[in-house]
Amino acid sequence: MSAAEATSAIDIDRSVGDFSYPESHEFDAGVGLTDKTIDYISGVKKEAEWIREFRHRALKIFRDKPMPTHWASDDLKEIDFDKIRYYLAHGQQPTRSWDDVPDDMKETFERLGIPEQERKFLAGVEAQFDSEAAYSNVKESLQKEGVIFVNSTEGLREHPEIFRKWFGKVIPTSDNKFSALNSAVFSGGSFIYVPPGVKVSHPLQAYFRINAENFGQFERTLIICDEGSEVMYMEGCTAPKFETTTLHSAVVELVAMKDAKIQYITVQNWSANVFNLVTKRGVAHENAEIRWIDCNIGSRLTMKYPGVVMKGRKARGEVISIALANDGQHQDTGAKMIHAADETTSNVVSKSISVGKGRSTYRGQVHIPKHLKGCKNNTECDALLINTKSKTDTYPAITVRGNQHATQHEASVSQVSEDQIFYMKQRGLSEAEAMSLSVNGFVNDLVREFPMEYSVELKRLIDLEMEGSVG
């Protein structure tokens, strides 16, 4: 199959998310980022003065900080912050009734299966369209238990006593240039609070959709699990394919109090014009657990390194990630594990697939200080190359002080066996089917970590990406 045919096949397969509707926004901050942009966003949202001041301080930090040089700096040069639209919304208040969602948004989310998933297995769902949530709903039984699941705008306005206590504490504004950008123009995202002892038995889900061209989506998510509580949160992301650059720069903060458990699951399928530059971090207190389960497919460039600060004794942190880079794509992903208490445990398992001229990079950090005792870390980085033009890199940074800890690191790079593909073709499979079977076998042990609905979707996405991958 020729390169043109392969590209055509992939373009067609992306049709699940590659559609858009004409824009008709009631609120539009215009193009470019200035102090007036900040005032417009804050004014439209009718925010408290401290939030407006927070945004302006963040904008100054963003301007002062240079672009990262330790990441894929050449790719980042394509971003022109003066040509991006930072706020587009139909309205400020998400509807609680599916029937009341505007028709174009409703059709978008119905094509992507959101209401069906909510009816079948979700305890709550939020659907964000460009800058604001269009629909937000949580089961009445959870509300009676005191569970809060709203968008971040509502969280700041209606629950400031909880939200403000943790807002920006896990990820400071000055953490990096893009966390500062998010802090200046953030809009949308989820706020979840689970009271002590409450275990949310079914997942909560948010879906983030970019519909507009030249747009930047900057959701801000804060999840707090109080003592002994548990929650699973899932997010999905798509955007139509435009010729111009689209920016997605989220900040996600997780707080797991004593004996609490948080699972945060992401399956993204961005189009190839999206720069996906995300900062995600959680703090786990005594005997708490935070698990990031991450699947990155699509985007022009993804830079995402979910982290856990294990602040309390016997806290646990885990990152399980799958990344697939196709032609013209760079998946720069990894994990950060910071041990800050005795007997803490971290586990990192990363698998990447590079297709065509795609490039995948694992960039990890594990830090265990000298004064701690009984800490454990396991890091596994496995890469699969589909052909001779694909690339992979691994940059693990593991710093262990003292002699009372246990750490292990394993990495491998392999290429799909031509003999294996030939064998499967002799059994009646097409080349694409054989390749897909090989890749799914490579990630199968990690796919099992996803809920069934997501694991089926993930395997289907891999099948589609493998179309025309060899030839």
Architecture blueprint of SSEs:
Elements: H1 3-13, E1 27-28, H2 35-44, H3 49-64, H4 73-76, E2 88-89, H5 103-111, H6 114-121, E3 124-129, E4 132-138, H7 140-144, E5 148-151, H8 152-158, H9 160-166, H10 177-185, E6 190-194, E7 204-209, E8 216-217, E9 220-225, E10 230-238, E11 246-248, E12 251-256, E13 261-270, E14 274-284, E15 289-298, E16 301-304, E17 307-310, E18 316-325, E19 330-339, E20 345-354, E21 359-368, E22 376-385, E23 391-400, E24 406-415, H11 418-426, H12 431-447, H13 452-465
Helix pairs in contact: 2-3, 3-10, 11-12, 12-13
Classification by helices and strands: alpha/beta
- Tell me the major beta sheet: 12 strands, mixed
Query: Regions with pLDDT < 50 over 5+ consecutive residues?
Result: 1-23
CA-based shape: globular
Rg from C-alpha positions?
22 Å
* Total domain count: 1
| Multimerization state | single chain
Number of beta strands: 24
Number of helices: 13
Compute the average pLDDT.
Answer: 85
End-to-end distance: 5 Å
Helix % is 25-40%
Strand content: 35-45%
